[in-house]
Structure formats: structure tokens, C-alpha cells
Amino acid sequence: MSVPCVCVAREAGEEVRRELAAADLLDEDHEIVVEDGSIYIPVTERAAAVAALDAGAAAIDSDIDVVHRDAPERDSQVTPADVLGFAPSIERLGEIAILDEDDPERARRIADAIVESDLPVETVVNRASKVKGELRVRDWDVLVGDGTETVHREYGHDFRLDIATVYFSPRLATERHRVVSQVEPGERVFDMFAGVGPFVVPMAARGAEAVGVDLNERAVDYLRENARRNGVADRVTAIQGDVRDVAGAYAGWADRIVMNLPHSADGFLATAVDVAGDDCVVHYYDIQHDKDPFGPGLAAIRAVAEPEYDVAVETEHVVRSYAPHELNVCLDVRLTRRE
Fold first, then answer.
1. How confident is the model at residue 16 (pLDDT cuts 50, 70, 90)?
2. What is the pTM assigned to this prediction?
3. Is the separation of the CB atoms in 313 and 284 below 8 Å?
């Protein structure tokens, strides 16, 4: 049957699919088709799909077209909502389904419904604590399955990780891609809180020389593995330790620095300035009140970087709502050393 489909290069397919899903434009009744290096994603409305992709085009490095073509009808799938009679909140990370339920009985009902459904997961977990400690990990109740390790695929890259031993948020995939898309071949990038490599690995894949530092030994082990599994180990240096102890070896080295530790990145600004080269972009993540989400971060950067550097804001970007009247934001700031 001929239906409207978004046509895009295969390597950009997952990114475009996410944009369309966020706009609620995916045609769930027809299969996605891959042919001759292109992917055809069925959509419910041609004009709306074009508008949605135009709005998100700044983060998509690929030509996009909307065409009519034959797409096979999708077999009807049983969803957890079909089993339960209501739509539960489920987050997917690789083959793990993540719940955030305070009621253990409700969590068990949802886990059983996931098993009964056609959702392609092997493990179901429920959050058992908030993110805690220096390593930013949390406790989990495993309701289905044997463990908490999985492989997550994001914008064409695979990341192995264990959610019980490392911090990772799939919700930040679009933001990570926004930053990664700015990287040019030959850049020297320094991720101060690298985790399992969701910034470092794709930056290296774009031709950068990348250094990733993390306090969590298990995260650094996964970072090294993920660099190998994505074919960029020759351009990635993974270091376990406190970045303040590591930075001396990279003084004046970086063209780009990622500071994704929004609750306390301000305490590491002096280290970032030490690592910055003569012309360096810093991606500074912060959480602030919505009345002035960017002012405190910029003031903190200026207080540390000036007068050694001129400070110029390139982007003020809201990543997501964090709590009532609080925003998770990113400042893309260029530091230019004064002569």
C-alpha cells in the first residue's frame, strides 16, 4: 500500500524517527523500509511531518524528503496498555524497561503486562532510590530478568552499560547530539565527566581526538569498551580519577570542553579554564530557576575565566524542565585567550 514516508539516509534514520515520534507523527500501522542506503519511515501526515522536521533540522545532518511508496502493513502488536487497560509510564534503555512506581504492587502489575505484551525487552526494573553519591548511581528492583546490563543504541552508536553501576540518561540523547554535531575533524575535545562515553565516542567518530575522565571506575571500563565497539579506540583516551587531579597533563590542550555535571559544574570551572586552549568552546550544564536560568552560570564562568579569556556566549539552550520552576540548561561559551 502506498503511504507517505519520510526518506532519509540510513545513518540518520534513528534520529529522524525520534523527531517524528516526539511529534506523534509515526504511522504505527506500516513497517519502516530500508532500501539502497535509505530508510523510509511511514508518517500519518505529510505536511505535518515536513513542518516537524524543519523545526528540528538544526540537529539533523542529512537531506530529508517526503515521498509516497509502498510499505507493508505491520502486524498488530499487543502493548502493555492493551493488557492493563491504561498506558503506564515506561522508559526504554536497550532491552531494559524502566519503571518509576512508588507502589510495588502496581509496579509488579506493569512488569507482568510488559512480559505479556510484544514489547521487545528482556528486563524490567523499578527505581528503588534517587540518584545518590559522588558516582550518581541509584538502586533498582529487578522485577523481570537476571541483571541490569544492556546495550543502548543512540544516533548510530552502541553503548554497553550497567544501570546499577553507572549513571546514564537516554532522555538526553537529543541534547548530546546537538553538541556532538558541532565537532569538526581534528578538534581536541575534553569531557570532564565522561561516563560511558555518550559524548566522547560520537565526537571521536566525527574525527576528534577525545579525552574522557570519570571518577567511576566501572564507567571508565565501559567507556574503553564502547570506544572499541564503535571503532574509535585510537582516538579516545579514557582516564579514571578526579578531573582536578588529571587536568595538569592537559593544560592549554582543549578546543572543546564538556561539563555535564549540572548540580556542581561551577566547582570545576577553574579546572576547565586550565584545560582550555587559546580558542575553546565550553558546554556548561546548569540547573537554575526559570526566572534567570542562564545568568548565574555565565557569571560563574566570567568570574573564573576573565581577564585571561574573553567570554562570548554562542548559545543559551534549555535542555529540559528539571523540577517546578527549575530548568536544566546548557551554555555554549567560547573562551578566547587575550594576548
1. confident
2. 0.79
3. no
